[in-house]
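In the design runs reported in the main text, the only information available to the sequence generator was the tokenized backbone. The following block is the verbatim input for one such run; it is reproduced so that readers can re-run the procedure and compare outputs position by position.
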């Protein structure tokens, strides 16, 4: 892959038999980002890749600061365009030679005291940062301007032409937001700490269209108190694949040092979520033992325990 900064001058197209008055070839292409589909997004910058459809072409790579857009210069030719926010930290990329195979993924994750915790059968993976992407197909760059098929427009894809070489892209969020709520927790004051894991998540996704890749991983995430008797946790993911079951695992450490692992199948909620990009998992009726008088103060320090010290409770929580 050839990486070029925007300030680097590139050779202009050579078409001696074509003259287009009014078009300054030195200005290159003006890339504009329309955030209609993600109005609250505020990325630090965007990566823009031009994949050549001509034989023996190069991939042109540009980094544009901010969310508005900027100018790029590349040779005349036929391209596919992919853009995504470049301010992520936990996302990595693979199979980057083609726009159709360009995938985002994350690395392995861990849990506190992992050696003494009953982990899920699936590998743990870090949750991704929020990611936005846009694409354009069939881009023709000529001395007289550009034509392209704009993808991702709220009104639908369409063919666009611009004698002033303005390329308008429409980024949208491709990662999923999951919210987990546990309501009506009995004796919630007995909790010292709680972590959660959701299984059945996709390990990666294609950047161009945000389609989850095959496979199944588990994502750990934090839970915190929500009101007087509730718990809430939020995390990002690459979504889920059809056929994957989703088990919510709640690791509860009590103030008396008891450890309980609650498991609940939330597959139906994940599958039937009205918006797969914004999924709410809601359960209620978690019963914990009443705290003893000596449990009113948090216990400090670590735990010298093993997996066998966890009590696993598979329960059918009432779905809200």
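Verbatim output:
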């Amino acid at each position: 892959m050839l990486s070029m900064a925007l300030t680097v001058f590139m050779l202009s197209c050579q078409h001696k038999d074509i003259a287009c008055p009014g078009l300054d070839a030195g200005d290159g292409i003006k890339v504009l980002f329309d955030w209609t589909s993600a109005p609250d997004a505020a990325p630090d910058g965007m990566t823009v890749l031009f994949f050549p459809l001509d034989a023996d072409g190069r991939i042109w790579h540009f980094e544009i600061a901010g969310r508005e857009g900027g100018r790029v210069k590349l040779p005349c030719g036929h391209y596919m365009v992919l853009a995504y926010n470049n301010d992520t930290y936990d996302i990595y990329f693979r199979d980057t030679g083609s726009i159709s195979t360009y995938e985002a993924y994350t690395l392995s994750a861990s849990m506190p005291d992992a050696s003494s915790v009953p982990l899920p059968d699936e590998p743990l993976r870090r949750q991704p940062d929020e990611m936005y992407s846009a694409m354009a197909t069939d881009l023709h760059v000529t001395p007289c301007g550009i034509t392209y098929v704009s993808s991702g427009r709220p009104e639908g894809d369409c063919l666009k032409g611009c004698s002033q070489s303005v390329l308008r892209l429409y980024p949208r969020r491709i990662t999923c937001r999951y919210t987990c709520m546990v309501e009506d927790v009995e004796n919630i004051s007995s909790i010292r700490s709680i972590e959660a894991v959701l299984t059945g998540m996709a390990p990666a996704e294609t950047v161009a269209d945000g389609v989850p890749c095959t496979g199944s991983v588990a994502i750990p995430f934090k839970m915190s108190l929500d009101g007087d008797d509730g718990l809430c946790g939020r995390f990002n993911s690459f979504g889920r694949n059809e056929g994957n079951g989703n088990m919510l695992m709640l690791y509860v450490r009590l103030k008396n040092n008891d450890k309980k692992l609650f498991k609940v199948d939330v597959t139906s909620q994940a599958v039937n979520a009205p918006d797969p990009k914004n999924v709410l998992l809601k359960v209620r009726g978690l019963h914990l033992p009443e705290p003893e008088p000596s449990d009113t103060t948090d216990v400090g320090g670590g735990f010298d325990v093993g997996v066998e010290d966890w009590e696993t409770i598979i329960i059918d929580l009432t779905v809200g």
